[in-house]
């Protein structure tokens, strides 16, 4: 994943459970004009709850009762269930494709089928043991000097093994249309610097466990006990010094804190012991302006090159290679790796089935050919056309809404409209789908799992390096089209909605417009507001850091937002604990605006495309229930307590309720009394956009 890029993985919740999906291959929802439209998920409703008292419970009560939150999780959702279904569908494709051995060489099917088969061939993987790594381990063993160390770093980087730093392509923060080299910090085994530095029990215990884990993997690779113990102690001490010189997670993810553009000459001055000419030439990278995410960290690496013994470097390099390869080697390596990384660090209670690991490896390396098969089966052109139509409608109504604003300065309004005019919604798969593996000449065989990984990684790294120094390519997505996630890229002013995300129940192209607008439409309109809201005001039309709001706009926005702050301050999850209105302000304004824009779109559309009353629910009722089910996750009380402390989104219940309580349209749709809990009095109703 490209660092330093301002994008958010979206958590748009899923919606209906229409129960008509299959993972057997046929298009899930073939375009069929005669097919009945789908309404809301009536089975999820709690008919005993009153819609005007607690709409979250009304829309979701039966679903929550029937779908217990799995042990160890604080939240459960239709989205999480859809994610599991996505996995099953991808696995079905791979089982099917790998069953055939005569695909044309280098075709997408041959790559994914044979790679998956090589992973599933555990007998061959187990028999090989650590042998596939031997040539590289020997190379590391031959290291005698700092120059040798740097040569091995280059070799390992070519196969995506994280060693000390990474050179990746990123958008230039000051000019996001340019894609430049970005040198980031990395190459430590524990994700957070706290694990190396803090003295609390939890951190100290983790570091001890980590050292034992390194020693065990060293022993599996053939080292003596004494060598392994000494090597592990050296690795931990070395990584500790790197961690000490690195930023904490929050700062490392902050574009402002990691923005240090410099010339190639300045890079050489900053770190004189690193042979950058050797590195850039070997990687075929242009020696032009670049970014160093963490200069202090890079200086520490520079210092280690002159001050640290070759013996320590050798242990560190061998460890980085083994750590990167262990999940793909024989059973003892896989088990040791999973025991530490999955069970101990992440608390996983079950071992990952081999087929799931093999799916993940194939998806990671060959995501594009796998996604092509997925799209052919699960995302028909009619689904893409429908999602595009919804996006166009939402954008048009949002523009009308902005145009009518009275609190925004006319000049600011003009810029907001320009940003919306260029807002890019990418649906399903890229318009010009890159054919990365065409003519790749990468040889993938059914009995060389690790060698396949190295070949695919090398090719991917080489392709990625070719992008550096060129204009940013919008067709290169951060997720594959089969991914069940979506993301917002504030710099590129776009939202990317992969085919794997646009699946029922989240998005059902055969649902009524009322249902589609209430769920997907409202979620999409919410995200569009981020382009022009108080956050979007910090980036101009081309994604450059520039505030285009006036002080007057900002204070008018704040004034109107105060109503929303007060509303959420009044939402309690238990006596004494309520939402932090300021923390959830931006997301709650997004929800309120999203639902309002989607509702207005529906009102306009039903004039030409009437929505039938289905299962006894009017189009308006379908719309609001769809919203309630879209955001209606189940969450433990403990999870809610944690969430209100730090999450900018309200709890599921209040995400559902909050926007609706401000809308007279909701009150009418369910004939609520004026003093009902779901109805805010007219003088306290909030409207920002
Ligand atoms: Zn948002």
Q: What would the CATH topology of the domain at 137-328 be? A: Neutral endopeptidase, domain 2
Strand arrangement in the largest pleated sheet:
1-8-9-7
Strand content: 5-15%
- How far apart, in Å, are the first and last alpha carbons? 34 Å
* Number of helices in the DSSP assignment: 27
Bound molecules: zinc ion
Largest sheet: 4 strands, mixed
Report the strand count. 12
Query: Which ranges are low-confidence, i.e. pLDDT below 50, for 5 or more consecutive residues?
Result: 1-34
Overall residue-averaged pLDDT value = 92
User: For this structure, what is the CATH class of the domain at 137-328?
Assistant: Mainly Alpha
How much helix is in the residues?
40-55%
CATH superfamily of the domain at 137-328: Neutral endopeptidase , domain2
Shape: globular
Radius of gyration from the alpha-carbon trace, in angstroms: 27 Å
| Overall SS class | alpha+beta
């Amino acid at each position: 994943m490209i660092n330093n890029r301002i994008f958010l993985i979206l958590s748009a919740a899923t919606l209906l459970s229409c129960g008509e999906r299959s993972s057997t291959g046929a298009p899930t929802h073939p375009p069929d004009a005669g097919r009945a439209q789908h309404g809301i998920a009536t089975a999820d409703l709690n008919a005993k709850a009153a819609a005007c008292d607690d709409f979250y419970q009304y829309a979701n009560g039966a679903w929550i009762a029937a779908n217990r939150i799995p042990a160890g999780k604080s939240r459960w959702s239709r989205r999480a269930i859809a994610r599991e279904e996505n996995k099953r569908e991808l696995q079905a494709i791979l089982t099917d494709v790998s069953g055939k051995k005569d695909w044309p060489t280098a075709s997408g099917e041959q790559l994914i089928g044979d790679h998956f088969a090589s992973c599933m061939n555990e007998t061959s993987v187990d028999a090989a043991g650590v042998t596939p790594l031997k040539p590289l381990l020997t190379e590391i063993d031959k290291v005698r000097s700092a120059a040798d160390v740097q040569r091995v770093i280059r070799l390992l980087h070519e196969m995506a093994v994280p060693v000390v730093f990474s050179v990746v392509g990123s958008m230039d923060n000051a000019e996001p249309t340019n894609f430049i080299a970005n040198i980031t910090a990395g190459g430590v085994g524990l994700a957070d610097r706290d694990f190396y530095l803090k003295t609390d029990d939890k951190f100290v215990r983790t570091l001890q466990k980590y050292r034992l884990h390194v020693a065990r993997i060293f022993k599996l690779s053939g080292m003596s006990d004494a060598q392994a113990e000494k090597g592990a102690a050296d690795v931990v001490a070395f990584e500790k010094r790197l961690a000490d010189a690195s930023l904490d997670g929050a700062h490392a993810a902050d574009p402002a804190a990691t923005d240090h553009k410099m010339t190639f000459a300045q890079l050489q001055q900053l770190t004189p012991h690193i042979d950058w000419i050797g590195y850039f030439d070997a990687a075929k990278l242009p020696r032009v302006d670049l970014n160093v995410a963490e200069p202090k960290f890079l200086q520490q690496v520079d210092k280690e090159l002159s001050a640290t013994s070759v013996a320590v470097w050798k242990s560190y390099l061998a460890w980085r290679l083994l750590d990167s390869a262990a999940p793909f080697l024989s059973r003892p390596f896989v088990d040791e790796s999973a025991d530490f990384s999955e069970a101990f660090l992440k608390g996983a209670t079950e071992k990952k089935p081999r087929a799931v690991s093999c799916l993940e490896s194939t998806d990671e390396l060959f995501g594009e050919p796998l996604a092509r098969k997925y799209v052919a089966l699960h995302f028909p052109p009619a689904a893409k056309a429908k999602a595009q139509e919804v996006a166009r409608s939402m954008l048009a109504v949002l523009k009308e809404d902005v145009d009518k604003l009275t609190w925004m300065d006319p000049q600011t309004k003009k810029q907001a409209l320009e940003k919306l005019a260029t807002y890019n919604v990418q649906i399903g798969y890229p318009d010009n789908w890159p054919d990365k593996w065409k003519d790749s000449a990468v040889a993938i065989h059914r009995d060389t799992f690790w060698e396949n990984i190295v070949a695919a990684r090398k090719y991917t790294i080489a392709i990625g390096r070719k992008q550096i120094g060129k204009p940013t390519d919008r067709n290169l997505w951060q997720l594959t089209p089969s991914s069940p996630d979506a993301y917002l890229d504030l710099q590129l002013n776009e939202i990317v909605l992969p085919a794997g995300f646009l699946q029922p129940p989240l998005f059902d192209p055969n649902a009524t417009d009322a249902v589609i607008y209430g769920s997907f439409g409202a979620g999409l309109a919410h995200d569009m507001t981020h382009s022009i809201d108080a956050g979007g005001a910090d980036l101009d039309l081309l994604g450059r850091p520039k505030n285009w709001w006036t002080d007057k706009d900002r204070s008018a926005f704040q004034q109107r937002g105060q109503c929303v702050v007060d509303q959420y301050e009044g939402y309690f999850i238990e006596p004494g604990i309520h939402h932090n209105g300021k923390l959830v302000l931006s997301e709650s304004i997004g929800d309120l605006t999203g639902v309002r824009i989607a509702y207005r779109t529906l009102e306009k559309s039903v004039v030409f495309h009437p929505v039938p009353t289905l299962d006894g629910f009017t189009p308006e009722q379908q719309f609001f229930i769809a919203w309630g089910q879209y955001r209606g996750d189940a969450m433990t009380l403990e999870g809610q307590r944690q969430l209100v402390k730090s999450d900018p989104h309200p709890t599921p219940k209040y995400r559902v309720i909050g926007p609706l309580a401000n809308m007279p349209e909701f009150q009418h749709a369910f004939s609520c009394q004026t003093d009902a809990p779901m109805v805010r009095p007219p003088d306290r109703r909030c409207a920002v956009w």
